[in-house]
Amino acid sequence: xxAIAIHPEVLRDVxxxxxxxxxxxxxxxxxxxxxxxxxxxxxxxxxxxxxxPDCQFELLMDLCGVDYSTYAEIGREGPRxxxxxxxxxxxRNQRVRVRVFCADDDFPCVASVSSIWSGANWxxxxxxxxxxxxxxxxxDLRRILTDYGFIxxxxxxxxxxxxxxxxxxxxxxxxxxxxxxxxxPREITPRIIREDNYGGLH
Length: 202
Fold this sequence. Notes:
Helix content is 17%, strand content 27%.
């Protein structure tokens, strides 16, 4: 029998009580609970969220990196990189989001949670590959989506759209070679529709 989900306001209070002062904030927006935690408390908080009787978030649904570098344009300042996780409690039918910021923009690093949820392994490798975030304690932190010779981290906001290098097969050398990008960068501006009632939307 599936457990009945509790109201988000109740879940926020349950999570806040379980974490106490270990969380920087426990907030509610758009019906979802978000926990923000410091890098120093990250692993301890994740362990509590998994094991506390009223939490029991036994499943790590997702873990990803975020680059907030362009948020300064809208007035937000602070650390550049964060790791965001989505946890699910199957037994209690509830979800929570956890966000932890990396303390150092030049060397973004947080602890690995792969010892708590083995499914974090590939998620953390992906965040390392695409954002360059280091997960301290990860057993096998290496690229997972890009090539072994890839330079940089393609989901960072300052990574060029065309990349740094390209590869091709060289018939004379009979092997794949890497060379500087030869594609000319171009600006693509999307068409903007400014109708008051476009598509029936108000």
